[in-house]
Amino acid sequence: MYVAVKGGERAIDNAHAWLAEERRGDPAVSELSLAQIRVQLKLAVNRVMAEGSLFDPDLAALAIKQSRGDLIEAIFLIRAYRTTLPRHGASNPIDTAEMAVDRRVSATFKDLPGGQVLGPTFDYTHRLLDFKLAAEGGVGPVATAPATQGPVPHVTEMLNRDGLIEEAPRDDTPPPDLTRTPLELPASRPLRLQAITRGDEGFILSMAYSTQRGYGRTHAFVGELRIGAVAVEMEIPELGFAVEIGEIEVTECETVNQFKGSKTEPPQFTRGYGLVFGQSERKAIAMSLVDRALRWKELGEDFSGAPAQDEEFVLYHADNIQATGFLEHIKLPHYVDFQAELELVRRLRAETMAMREAVQ
């Protein structure tokens, strides 16, 4: 706590009480339940889980309610709570080829093994306000379909069979954990992917958009976008084999990118990859574009100076919690610092006026 703030503890307590009152709103209006937030604001819940690095829809809904809908504040709450949790071990890598698919589309191949599944999407809506939703209890038609059961092979395997796309890099070395060790540069690809998937959706979206406009050598097709549930397994030493401990919903995106070759690699397609908790396809696509842009060095490309290719710029500025903390701390008392600046400006002005008078 700032020393200058200590004298205002009573004011802070009153501010907290006022905040609680504003959070509740008009008592005549029914209070939002966590179940309502979790089920009806699912995309907001998904973003909080993804950028908070904790898959728990109930806690994410609680954070959204507590933060009055400020998703970055909710992400902050989730990350802070996450640090209090014990870690019992590490799960095995999830197998997305075994995903129970709710949505699966490809922009590169029309006919896919297993078919394309449009699923729940805004892509084909007219973006017109639906005033039926404003009616109390108004419910539109409900159509549900069972998820496609795996295995559902990845589209890029079709290109891989013909040698037209780079081999998917495989490294069984346990990756560093960004939640436990500070980010250091140069960063490995697994570390970069961790930082990007935790990064602010708006920032990653802007970086991805910049690559599409020519700042980063990314000319991508969505090889495949899939959303669905995957099993999480964990090795149990006492048993000697892995057991399923639950399942999570994820969005996975693989982009196929033009590549004319370099000094070290032949002409072929290259990959970009994105994986995010929950249904978050905008973030997954953006993540895959930024991932590809950051791979310029390992693919032997020249650095064009684009922001999305600059590892330090992207990774050090993607985290919305760090950005918010540094941005918002300037609204807290800086009386001593400002007085020093004020005295400096006054002295410089006096010296400048004295010099002008001497010249005259």
The gist of it:
The protein is built from twelve helices and four strands, in the order αααααβαααβββαααα.
Folded structure, characterized:
This protein has helices at residues 9-24, 34-40, 42-52, 57-66, 71-82, 156-161, 189-198, 201-212, 281-293, 311-317, 320-328, 335-359, and strands at 100-105, 220-236, 241-257, 270-277. It has 360 residues and is α+β, with helices and mostly antiparallel strands. The protein has three domains: 3-82; 96-123 and 145-318, no CATH class; 332-359. It has a four-stranded antiparallel beta sheet.
The residue-averaged pLDDT reads 86
N to C succession of SSEs:
HHHHHEHHHEEEHHHH
Strand order of the largest sheet: 1-2-3-4
Relative strand content: 5-15%
Q: What's the gyration radius in Å?
A: 25 Å
Q: Main sheet? A: 4 strands, antiparallel
Low-confidence stretches: none
* Coarse structural class: alpha+beta
DSSP E strands, number: 4
The helix count comes to: 12
Q: What gross morphology would you assign?
A: globular
The CA-CA distance between the termini, in Å, is: 51 Å
In the residues, how many domains can be counted?
Answer: 3
- Helix proportion of residues, in percent? 25-40%
